[in-house]
Amino acid sequence: MVEFFKAFNWQEIFKATTVLFAVIDIVGSVPIIIKLKETSGSIHEARTSFVSFGIMIGFLILGESILKLFGVSIEAFAVAGAFILFAMALEMILGVRLFRDEVSGKTASVVPLAFPIIAGAGTMTTLVSLKAEFQEINIVIAIIINVLIVYIVLKLTRRIENLLGEGGIAILKKVFGIILLAIAIKLFTTNLQALF
């Protein structure tokens, strides 16, 4: 218990929370969430939040070991995630449909929402970086804070949708599609360089 309080640091929690919030970018993902709700019918907010939390905590503790076990580097993992984000960005920008499988709200809550949108390659790579800099307990608290934010945004998506209207959502989809495309390209090029 004494060790816990020694490791507990508000400054580390704040920094880790801010970094994770920027990487997860749940507010920027609102157009994607709306799109997923349209195709799947509904999103299970609690399931998405719980699965995202589980993936992040699991990767924080066992991430590097699991990837090494399969002979996969973090860079290769990030490149694979970049392809998925790239495809989703093209759907948003061009209005084409690349993912042909019909997904239910239950399925969409896990893939692609919990992974790779929320707890994707970028988030996982960030967690490994944070682990090298901060105490684990502070990173866990930062993850909990971000998962709560994710849950709130998912719950309020319908209100955000009503506030923006169809025109606003269409514009947001295009704008965030381009941003998502840029993130995918950056994730791809950065990690591809590291691979070779």
* Shape summary: globular
Number of helices: 8
- Beta-strand portion reads under 5%
Helix fraction bin: over 70%
The arrangement of helices and strands along the chain is HHHHHHHH
Based on CA atoms alone, the radius of gyration comes out at 17 Å
Question: What is the terminal separation in angstroms?
Answer: 45 Å
Stretches where pLDDT falls below 50 for ≥5 residues?
Answer: none
Largest sheet: none
Secondary structure: number of strands: 0
Mean pLDDT equals 82
Oligomer: single chain
How does the helix and strand content classify structurally? mainly alpha
Produce the secondary structure layout.
Elements: H1 2-7, H2 10-24, H3 30-40, H4 45-69, H5 74-94, H6 105-118, H7 121-133, H8 136-195
Helix pairs in contact: 2-7, 2-8, 3-6, 3-8, 4-6, 4-7, 4-8, 5-7, 5-8
Descriptive terms for the model:
84% helix, mainly alpha, globular, 8 helices, single chain, 0% strand, 196 residues
What does this protein look like?
There is one protein chain. Helices cover 84% and strands 0% of the residues. It is globular and about 50 Å long. Helix 2 crosses helix 8, helix 4 crosses helix 8 and helix 5 crosses helix 8. It starts with a helix and ends with a helix. The longest helix is centred in the last third of the chain and has 60 residues. It has eight helices and no strands. The chain has 196 residues and is mostly helical.
